[in-house]
Amino acid sequence: MALKPLDIFKLLPKTNCKECGFPTCLAFAMQVAMGKIPLTKCPYVSEEAKEKLAKEAAPPIKTITIGKEGNQFKMGGETVLFRHEKTFYNPTGIGILISDDEDDEKIETKLKKAVEMEYERVGLKLKTEIIAVMDKGKGKFVDIVKKSYSTGKNLILISASAENIKKAVEVSKDIKPIIFITDKNKYSEIANVCKQNELPFVVEFSSIEEVKEEVNKVKNAGCENIVLFPSSKNIKDVFQNLVLLRRGAITNKISEFGYPVLTMPCFMTDNYLKEAIYSSIFIAKYGSVVILSDFYGETLFPLLVERLNIYTDPQKPLTTPEGVYEIGKVDENSPVYITTNFSLTYFIVSGEIANSKVPSYLLIQDTEGLSVLTAWAADKFNAETIAELVKKTKIGDKVSKKILIIPGVVAQILGELEEELPDMKIVLGPREASHIPAFIKTFQENKPQ
């Protein structure tokens, strides 16, 4: 949990030596509190103070990482109840359930869906992260784990058999699968396996009153990486437990509540639409992982978009890298458009240019994620900055007509931009991106040859 400047100040030697680069220890403490510099910048801070700060500054929800380098998935690590207070850090993992009592064709279909169902939105790839493999005693559990492992997805291993869990761990331990032993009598045995391999252990509970006792049993067995699982099939109970866990960890500092939470709407209903609704609730309210019985485009895509929206930092707009983008098969006669790097602006504008069927260049200027009007008002999208980008990208060397189309909402900069770029013809485009196809058609019909 974030410490206040005065809390950090108390850990400092209070000598105002200035060796850290700041005039006083309090000024230094304020910079540390804002996350701008580490405590170690103070040459005289004690090891005890460093240890205490690390402990106090740790998020109230433990961060657990699974998967291999390059394909890791993080759970927990949250510090607030509501996104607008700061931000949420680690997006809910979405996974599919595969049971060993399903026929081989269905299993292969689900594995294929887990790998292939991806979507693109505002330049980001939206995809699922997890396959949960459930042992129902049909003898295929370990084989399915091997196949699931080969997909590169992260795994949850679910079984009542300690022996089957151990066999599955042997083939997948390098990706740190989440271990869910459903027989509580075998908690101690499997907790030891998790301890040896540093694997997350699922602690199941039916009521919030059980959490402390169940968590402490596993911790006493030496397993520190814990994932909580509210086992009720009643949506009201699960929702209430999710809220109580988050509030208890953050507001009341109950350490036993401070772990990621696994939710399994696949166990709560046989209706895939209800399952999607339950999942949407868990994504919005504190579920670290959501497991579905199957993936369907009409429900999976909305869940991925919901997750994207909730776990986008409200203080950092989504942006598109600055540069020149080619839309269609451009040539020397292609017009050049320019807009800002707010991702939504880029994708709307680029989409309408594509709809116009006129191959074009699109210049994207870095305005720190601001939309056109906002960037213009903040003096980040003006004649000078546009001219600078045009010269830096040398877009004029790629086209013979040298036509630059600017957004219609910034007509005020037209004259000044003509002075800045005398070699280019500056054209005022439409105010709305949706009018681009009609605009370019009319412009091409009327422009001099």
Helix content: 25-40%
User: Which regions contain 5 or more consecutive residues with pLDDT less than 50?
Assistant: none
Backbone structural class: alpha/beta
CATH-derived topology of the largest domain: TIM Barrel
Level-1 CATH class name of the largest domain: Alpha Beta
Mind explaining what this structure looks like?
It is a single chain. With 449 residues, the protein is an alpha/beta fold. The protein has three domains: 5-57, 3-methyladenine DNA Glycosylase II, Chain A, domain 3 (Orthogonal Bundle); 64-310, Dihydropteroate synthase-like (TIM Barrel, Alpha-Beta Barrel), CATH 3.20.20.20; 323-446, Rossmann fold, CATH 3.40.50. Helix content is 38%, strand content 17%. The chain has 16 helices and 17 strands. It has a six-stranded parallel beta sheet with strand order 8-7-6-3-12-11. The chain has a five-stranded mixed beta sheet with strand order 13-15-14-16-17, with helices on both faces. The relative contact order is 0.08.
Q: Key features?
A:
alpha/beta; 3-methyladenine DNA Glycosylase II, Chain A, domain 3; TIM Barrel; Rossmann fold; 3 domains; 6-stranded parallel beta sheet; 5-stranded mixed beta sheet; 16 helices
What order do the helices and strands come in, and which of them pair?
Elements lengths: L4 H5 L15 H9 L13 H11 L6 E3 L6 E3 L17 E7 L4 H13 L1 E4 L2 E4 L2 E5 L6 H10 L3 E6 L2 H11 L5 E4 L5 H11 L3 E5 L5 H10 L5 E5 L4 H16 L11 E2 L8 H13 L4 E4 L4 H14 L12 E5 L8 E5 L2 H13 L4 E6 L6 H6 L5 H11 L9 E4 L7 H7 L4 E4 L7 H11 L3
Parallel strand pairs: 3-6, 3-12, 6-7, 7-8, 9-10, 11-12, 14-15, 14-16, 16-17
Antiparallel strand pairs: 1-2, 4-5, 13-15
